[in-house]
Amino acid sequence: MNPLVVLVLCLSCLLLLSVWRQSSGKGKLPPGPTPLPIIGNILQIDVKNIAKSLSNFSKIHGPVFTVYFGMKPTVVLHGYEAVKEALINMGEEFSGRGSFPVMDKFNKGHGIIFSNGKRWKETRRFSLMTLRNFGMGKRTIEECIQEEARCLVEELRKTNASPCDPTFFLGCATCNVICSIVLQNRFDYKDQNFLNLMEKISENHRYLSSPWMQICNNFPFLINYFPWITNKFFKNLVYMKNYILEKVKEHQESLDVHNPRDFIDCFLTKMEQEKHKQHLEFTFENVVITALDLFGAGTETTSTTLRYGLLLLLKHPEVTAKIQEEIERVIGRHRRPCMQDRSDMPYTDAVVHEIQRYIDLIPINVPHGVTCDIKFRNYIIPKVSFFLLYSNSVLLKFPSAQCDSTPLST
Q: Which residues form the signal peptide (predicted)?
C-alpha cells in the first residue's frame, strides 16, 4: 500500500478517535469552549497567561466549565462559591491529585505535592505532625526564623543604605529557614553548595512556569521524543536529589531515634518503625522527594512574597507608617518579634494577608483529581478527569486585609 495512503488513514483514525473521546464526555462534563481534534482548546488559550484565558472562558460558560488540554478534559472551578463547594462541602471526593507528567516522570508518585491516595495521606499527615512537633509557629522553628532574620538584617546593613536588589538576600534567608528545619543547619550566604542548591531551585521554578513546560504537560510524548526541552530541568532535579540523598545518608549514620534533630531524622525514625510492614510508604525515595517538595514549595514562594511585600510598602507609605507605629508600640527596638506579638498587631497581620491576596502568587493551583465518579452541580465528573482551581478568581474578589477598608490594589 502507498505510504501516503497509510499516513492519511492513520491521521484520519486519530482524528476520529479524538472526536469520539471528546464528544463522548460532553453529556457528562460541564460545557466549555468547543475543542479541536487532538489539540483540544490549546489554540484558544494564551500559554503565557493561562489564568486570563480561563477567566474569559468563565464569562461565557459559567463558574464550572471544561477545557481540553490536548485530548485530556480538565474541569475548571472559577470563583469563591464553586471552589468552596468542592473543597469544603465535598473535600474527600475532591482530594485527589491530577496528572502532572513532567513531575510524575521524576517523582514517580513520591513526596507530598504530586503523590496520590494512601501515600499522599500518610506522608502529608506525618509531615504536618512532624512540623508541629518541631514547633510550626511555636518555639523551635520560631527561633530558627528569628536567627535568620537577624542574619538577613546584618547582610542588608552591609549595603550601607545604598540602593540594592534584595532578591538574593531574601532567597538565602527563606532557603536557610527550610535548611534549618529539614537539614538541621543553616548556611553562610557565600557557601557555594548552598548557592548551587538555591540556583537549581530558582531555575526550575522558572522552567515550570514556561510555555514549553505547559505544552509538555499537555502532550507528554514530547518529553521522550524531544528530551532537549526538559533536559536542564531534570538535570537540576537530579542534582538536588543527590544533594538531599547525601544528607540523608549522613543523618542515617548519626541517627538517634530518641533524639531527632530535624525533619529527616524524624522520617528515618518512622522508616525504622514501619520497616516490617508489607506495603512501605516511608522509604528512602520518599524522604528525598518529600524534602525536595518542602524546598520547592517554600523557598521561591516565600522569598517572592517578601519581595513583593517590600515593593507594595514602598508604593503605600501611609500603610508602612501605620505598621511602623504598631511595631514601635508592641515590640519596640530592644527585642526580637515573636509569634505571641501577632495577636497584639492586628493591622500588621491584616497587611500581611492583604499582600498575599493581592500578589496572587499562584493564580492557578496544581491539578487536582476526583477520587470517584461524582455529581457536582448537576454534572457528572468521572474519576479519570482532573480539575484546576482558579485561585485568582477567589483572591481578587475578597480583600482579606481591611487596612482602613482600603485594599492595597487601590
A: 1-25
Distance CA 388, CA 368 (A): 6
Q: For 334-352, what is each residue's pLDDT tens digit?
A: 889 998 999 999 999 999 9
- Above 50 in pLDDT, residue 126? yes
* Domain extents in the chain: 112-310
Q: Measure the N-to-C terminal CA separation of the chain; round to a whole number of Å.
A: 68
* Cell numbers describing residue 253: 549514620
Integer Cα distance of 155 and 293 in angstroms = 28
41-45, 210-214, 310-314 — most confident range = 310-314
What does DSSP say about strands 386-390 and 368-369: parallel, antiparallel, or unpaired? antiparallel
Q: Which of 242, 261, 278, 239 is nearest to 185 (CA)?
A: 261
Half-sphere exposure of 395 (CA within 13 A, CB side): 20
Structure pTM?
0.83
Mean pLDDT of the chain: 85
Strands 72-78 and 386-390: parallel
Nearest alpha-carbon partner for 106 in 249, 236, 211: 236
Homologous superfamily, domain 112-310: Cytochrome P450 (1.10.630.10)
H/E element, 75: strand 72-78
CA distance 351 to 367: 29
CB–CB of 98/366 below 8 Å?
A: yes
